[in-house]
Amino acid sequence: MSNRRTFIQQSAAAASALAFPLAGGAQPKTVKIGILHPVTGALAYSGQQCREGALMAVEDINKTGIRALGGARLDVMLGDAQSTPQAGVAEIEKMNQAGCSAVVGAYASAICLATTQAAARYELPHVVDVGVADQIVERGLKNTFRFGPGYRTCAQTAVANLHVLNTAAGKPAKTVMIIHEESLFGTGTANLLARELPGFGYEVKEVVKHANPTRDFNNIVLRMKSVNPDIVIPANYYNEYALLVRTMQQQKVLPKAIYSVLGGAASSYKFVKEFPEAANGIIDCNHWFNPKDKRSFELKKRVEAKGLFYSYEVFMTYTAVRLLADAIERAKSADRAAILNALTTSAFADHFMPYGPTKFVNGQNQGAQPLMTQ
Q1: Which of 286, 308, 323 is at the close of a domain?
Q2: Chain-centroid distance, C-alpha 231
Q3: Do the beta carbons of residue 288 and residue 370 sit within 8 Å?
Q4: Of 39, 70, 207, 247, which one is least surrounded by beta carbons within 10 A?
């Protein structure tokens, strides 16, 4: 009897280790991916929003897993770029050593420029979620794919639409002042605008750069009052944008228009809720979802149920992760080279951005475009 009990106990132990996992078929593997954003430092709010969008996408993808890999789930390695390129590069090194198959990130242009270069050393696929500097995709890096538009496309779209609006109003606006943050994003956007605007008949009176972060815009707004431009064009991140516009309101500086290009707060539900008077009437050319696609509003409800604002950071990164998952599905592999090939040939269309089917040329999605909001 004791021998029988011993046999049963040993058999049960063996079954728990071997038989039960096999009973339902082989357990699906996981595919490790890196999610990298500046969740601390000056860009923490935007970085945290990006991370939330990424994790929501992973949650949705993992409901079925990667079917071509037997339902493999995405295993996320989170990284904090700490709002600096150097910290972003250090995180890429960790993700490479951990065996990540690909990376999504890293929000800010200056950080993306550094992290894509670092990832290229390891042929590590890097999907850029937001970073708009065109240098990111103009260096010939075979590992870099940007789903959204760059700042050249955004600036050209913005200026063309500004001219349409101004012409329809009888051309009351003739002079412009550009206020931009100091990094690659703000400086590059401002330089493009300064080159584009004169061709449409606008005089750029002044281009003013500010530090990031900046906690006092009084001197810049006083200068604005002296220059007295018809149009003010800000290009900066959320905190600075909100403070700049509020300072203009406090000092009663009222140009004919505040016309943002990639304004960090202008197209933000957070800005509209927190500072409705300052936000009133502002026009922005920015990342936006397709308002005719109900899926974008379904995600909005889920985000707001978490007590968060549905910002461009959320839906841009959400979609970037889904793009990567689609590539892994078509690659039928977690191998980096296979994923790179799948991204290069991507025709990803299962999204709610106003881009149409994805087509990458030199790492840039050709259909990506901004929308106008007010």
Answers
A1: 286
A2: 27
A3: yes
A4: 70
Strand-pair partners of 144: 126
Entry pTM: 0.91
Buried b (16+ CB within 10 A) or exposed e, 204-218: bbebbbbebebeebe
Query: Of 142, 140, 158, 159, which Cα lies nearest the Cα of 198?
Result: 159
Maximum Cα interatomic distance, the chain, rounded to a whole number of Å: 101
C-alpha dihedral (139, 142, 147, 149), degrees to nearest 10:
20
Q: CA 201: distance to chain centroid?
A: 32
User: Which tokens is 257 given?
Assistant: 């228009």
Residue 28 has a pLDDT of 55
The alpha carbon torsion through 46, 369, 234, 42 (nearest 10 deg) reads 20
Instruction: Give yes or no: residues 182 and 208 share one domain.
Output: yes
Compute the residue count for the chain. 374
Please state the domain count of the chain. Answer: 2
**Residue 358 in domain:** yes
9 falls within a domain? no
Range of 53's domain?
30-149+292-368
- Whether the Cβ atoms of residue 130 and residue 346 lie closer than 8 Å to each other: no
Question: Each residue of 314-359: pLDDT tens digit?
Answer: 999 999 999 999 999 999 999 999 999 999 999 999 999 999 999 9
Round to whole Å and give the CA distance between 312 and 46.
Answer: 9
> 64, exposed or middle or buried, with CB in 10 Å at 0-12, 13-18, 19+?
exposed
Number of H helices, E strands in the chain: 14, 13
Q: Are residues 268 and 314 in the same domain?
A: no
Question: Which pLDDT belongs to residue 330?
Answer: 98
**CA angle, 206 as apex, 205 and 211 as ends, to 5°?**
165
Give the pLDDT of residue 142: 98
Assign residue 206 a region: left if phi > 0, alpha if psi is -120 to 50, beta otherwise? beta
